[in-house]
Amino acid sequence: MGSLPLQTVPTEFLEWSRHRQALLEERLQNILPAPEIAPGRLHAAMRYAVLGGGKRVRPLLACAAGEVAGASLERTLLAGAAVELIHAYSLVHDDLPCMDDDVLRRGKPTCHVEYDEATALLVGDALQSLAFQVLAEYRLTDEPALQLEMLRILASAAGSRGMAGGQAIDLEAVGRSLNAPELEFMHMHKTGAIIRAALQLGVRCGKRLDEAQSLHIDHFAKCIGLAFQVVDDILDTESNTATLGKTAGKDARSDKPTYVSALGVAGAKSLARELREDAMQALASFGDRAVRLRQLADFIVMREF
Amino acid sequence: MGSLPLQTVPTEFLEWSRHRQALLEERLQNILPAPEIAPGRLHAAMRYAVLGGGKRVRPLLACAAGEVAGASLERTLLAGAAVELIHAYSLVHDDLPCMDDDVLRRGKPTCHVEYDEATALLVGDALQSLAFQVLAEYRLTDEPALQLEMLRILASAAGSRGMAGGQAIDLEAVGRSLNAPELEFMHMHKTGAIIRAALQLGVRCGKRLDEAQSLHIDHFAKCIGLAFQVVDDILDTESNTATLGKTAGKDARSDKPTYVSALGVAGAKSLARELREDAMQALASFGDRAVRLRQLADFIVMREF
Description:
homodimer, Farnesyl Diphosphate Synthase, two-stranded antiparallel ribbon, 14 helices
């Protein structure tokens, strides 16, 4: 990737990730109602939309942030599951004909193609409710007041001043050319808000960090959230549909502003590299506790390269 | 209404209701982001969908239930506002072309007609997030653990085993004829769950009720929730579009099972009367503290007659 040194992903990081991905899958399996429970078709469709796919980057970020704060793995997995449910709902709604009208997601037909539009609408709605139910139902902290704060963080990150707002800004931007600061504003909402929430929730499953430490984690989250989107735009340009598991080249064809259209491929790669450096510096004071966050930052920036 | 004695709504109940409706409108005005805040079009559409319409039955039920438990008006208004946001989101999504495809709501063009489908989808999504944000952000009880329980109640009532699930059962029922127990199962989810949640939240803003009292309130909630739907079905048959503020006769035309199709108009009216009696009996032990709940039960069963 441009001037980034070629690196291989450390085996023990892959093991750490796979272990957590497997545990998360189990938690999601249990959290999602069984298809035997009425309404069966809706529950089957919810499971279809959530299970058996995805890199689970947000829950992994929650786990890694939890390690910085000495959180229990079980609590961060549940917090991560709530974040992943919000992410999964947003993908289902995003793929609907009135939004991106996409037919392929995670290598499978999208939810409204496999089921139908009305069911996909309800799947997204019900997954959002379920995310908040998880945060309200399980014991994720020793202080209920702190758990309320976690709910407030996720609700705010999902809403009109977070992810849903980012989608609206995206809609308004189709056909217009945005410059880099405008793109940043859009993506800070659209994908950045939930990534920040994943880290904030993970941290809150553990011991309270002091204010400076919290700001460092949050700065890391902002950098990595933006880097994630920049790399997504690069992949959308350079990869093929089979590798991505979703329709490649779609953003450019649908005249959506991307980092590649704003900065060119080389410029976008350079920005991703800068954001990674910035993210790493934010972790400087945490020492070994932040090793997984650093590895995830590398993984996010260098995936598929 | 059938053998129900003709009654006029007591003036002081109307005053009580109007006072709370006005205060609720103020709270909603403040809770909903201003259209000056980006993304402005989304925020304008959210306000369009929520403000200046609706009987606010669910917040009134929350206020009346709060009076039984000695809750502060301010707290029950905020809990009621959260419930109303969930209700408003469900109407916006319900009216979408892939669901009921309706063009008129509360006497105005539906959200996707006034704006566009993608915006209406995001309006619903963002209103749901906002509802949980309200419950997490304001202080509604003296115990944060109890407030987490309120969040759990609303999330569960909104989700796949509550309102969204009821919508899915409704989708599966189109074109089939349901008997009264099947209809009850559908409506206990579709409209009943959120009405129960409104009462449960209102009660939890005040002093804890004992178990028997909680069960009485919950039984009242179930009866009144079902009565609400039965009366809706009667109104859909007997009223005209101007009076309803939404398209009349639509359920029958779209071959949806209703209480009128299952029981006939006389049978539906008789069921509404029985449910009202049952609801009133559930309140017997509360004396004067439940006067508003009784008046609301009458209002729900006798509206527009």
